[in-house]
Every structure is written in structure tokens, then in C-alpha cells.
């Protein structure tokens, strides 16, 4: 009997403490629940919105390619430029490459500005970033000065990127176009020292070295 009385008193005391804790902290409890619900709903909305945006960009990219196939370059260019400023690392990059490869923009400064925008407003895996930098320099090499080209390519030629031999070839070709054959030879020769390259890259470098020697 005494044990049952003690148990009943214990339960009442426990409930009283829980009730007391609830009364003292109910504002914090309800606020925390509301915040968690808001976070959950917001996160769900964010991911759904992002997925919807991704699908829309994909549809627009396909539409631009259809315009290109039909010879409507201005319509394609307008859509691709809009995709670029949307700052989606996948479709902004694909759109930039398509504009560049199809020569849809002939203004070199405008095209370089687009490359800079994509590089500055998106996060890339290192090799993809190096590819974008390399393609930017392909555009720059037409008119940019030596120091600017070297500065842009420096992270690639000083690292172990898969684009390193391509960057060295580009620099060699740049110096050949300037008739600075000693500098060109230096960059072609560096390719011959790299290991594990495709045979075609060695062959290109070797042929270019022979061509310089025969000049």
C-alpha cells in the first residue's frame, strides 16, 4: 500500500515538473517548432525551385541549339546569353562554349567578359575550370599582350592539369606568330619532357620544333 502511494506521489510530482517546465518554456518550444517547420518548408521550396530552374535552362539550351540548326543565330545567341547570366555551372558553361565554338559573338572583349563572368560566378571542379581558362586564352591570344596571356595560363602550366600540354602548345604557337622562335622552342620542348601524354601531343610538339629549326 505504502509503495503504491509512493509511486502515485512520484508520478504526480513528475507530471508537475513536466507541466511546470512546459509552462515556463512553452514560448521557446512553440517558437522552435515554428522555426523548424519554416526551415523545412523553405528548404523544400528552394530545392524544388532549383530543380525547376535547371529544367527550364535545359529546355532553353535545347531550344537555342534548334535555332542554330535552323540558321536563326540571333535568336540562339539571345537565349544562350540569358542562360550564361543565370549562373548555372552546367548550362552557363555549355552555353558559353556553344557561343564561342559557333562564333556567335565576334566582339572579343564581350566574349572575354562572358568567360570572366562564368569563372567568377560559378564553382567548378579544377579541371573544368582549367578548360574554361584555356578556352578564354584562345580568345585572348588574338590580341592580348604576352604578360596577360602568361598570367592567365600560369596556374595551368605550373600545375599538373591535363590541359598543361595544350597550354604549352598554345604558348609555343603564340610565340611563333610573333616570330619569337627561341621562346616558342622553350614551350614546345617542355611538352617533350612530360610523361604519360597522348602520342599525338608529342608528335605535334616534335613537328613544331622541326619546323622552327628549318626556319
List keywords for this structure.
single chain; 215 residues; mainly alpha; 9 helices; elongated
User: Which regions are unreliable across 5 or more consecutive residues at pLDDT < 50?
Assistant: none
Tell me how many strands there are: 0
Helices and strands, in N-to-C order?
HHHHHHHHH
Biggest beta sheet summary: none
Tell me what the structure shows.
This protein is mainly alpha-helical. Helices cover 81% and strands 0% of the residues. The chain contains nine helices and no strands. Helix 4 runs antiparallel to helix 5. The longest helix has 68 residues. The model has no long low-confidence stretch (mean pLDDT 84).
Short recap of the structure:
This protein has 215 residues and is mostly helical. 81% of the residues lie in helices and 0% in strands.
Amino acid at each position: 500500500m505504502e509503495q503504491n502511494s509512493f509511486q502515485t506521489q512520484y508520478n504526480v510530482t513528475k507530471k508537475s515538473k513536466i507541466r511546470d517546465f512546459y509552462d515556463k518554456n512553452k514560448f521557446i518550444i512553440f517558437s522552435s517548432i515554428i522555426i523548424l517547420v519554416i526551415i523545412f518548408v523553405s528548404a523544400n521550396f528552394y530545392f524544388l525551385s532549383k530543380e525547376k530552374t535547371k529544367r527550364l535552362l535545359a529546355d532553353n539550351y535545347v531550344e537555342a541549339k534548334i535555332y542554330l540548326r535552323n540558321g536563326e543565330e540571333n535568336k540562339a545567341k539571345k537565349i544562350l546569353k540569358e542562360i550564361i547570366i543565370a549562373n548555372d555551372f552546367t548550362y552557363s558553361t555549355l552555353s558559353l562554349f556553344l557561343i564561342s565554338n559557333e562564333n556567335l559573338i565576334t566582339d572579343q572583349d564581350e566574349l572575354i567578359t562572358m568567360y570572366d563572368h562564368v569563372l567568377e560566378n560559378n564553382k567548378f571542379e579544377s579541371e573544368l575550370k582549367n578548360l574554361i581558362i584555356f578556352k578564354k586564352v584562345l580568345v585572348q591570344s588574338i590580341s592580348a599582350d604576352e604578360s596577360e596571356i602568361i598570367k592567365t595560363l600560369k596556374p595551368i602550366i605550373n600545375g599538373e592539369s591535363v590541359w598543361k600540354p595544350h597550354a604549352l602548345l598554345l604558348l609555343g604557337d603564340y610565340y611563333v606568330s610573333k616570330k619569337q622562335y627561341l621562346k616558342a622552342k622553350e614551350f614546345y620542348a617542355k611538352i617533350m619532357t612530360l610523361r604519360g601524354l597522348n602520342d599525338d601531343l608529342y608528335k605535334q610538339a616534335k613537328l613544331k620544333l622541326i619546323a622552327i629549326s628549318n626556319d
